[in-house]
Design a protein that fits this description.
The chain is mostly helical. About 100% of the residues lie in helices and about 0% in strands.
Length: about 100
């Protein structure tokens, strides 16, 4: 019986050892899964920051485009005013010429 008891004890010890190894493997896999999850979240955060940066850049470009358009509109307005001034000067010159005649 002593040999049988020893054999049973050895088998029980082996089963326990297998369970310990299995438990460690499961724990490692769980930690690996958590690490993957953290990495995925970090990647998502980086992607969001990159997208936010791109959005800021697009907005800045849009603002610059709007500013350029406003400057272009102001230039057009100045040109129109200059044309009107030239037209008035031409009319004034004609009026002077008529008066001189």
């Amino acid at each position: 019986e002593t040999d049988r008891d020893k054999q049973r004890q050895t088998e029980t010890d082996r089963k326990r050892q297998r369970l310990v190894v299995t438990d460690r493997d499961w724990q490692r896999q769980t930690e690996t899964g958590r690490d993957r999850q953290r990495q995925a979240e970090t990647n998502k955060d980086r992607q969001r920051q990159t997208e936010t940066g791109r959005d800021r850049q697009r907005r800045a470009e849009t603002d610059r485009d709007r500013q350029r358009l406003a400057e272009t509109d102001r230039d057009r307005q100045r040109l129109a005013e200059t044309d009107r001034d030239r037209q008035r000067l031409a009319e004034t010159d004609r009026d002077r010429q008529r008066l001189a005649e």
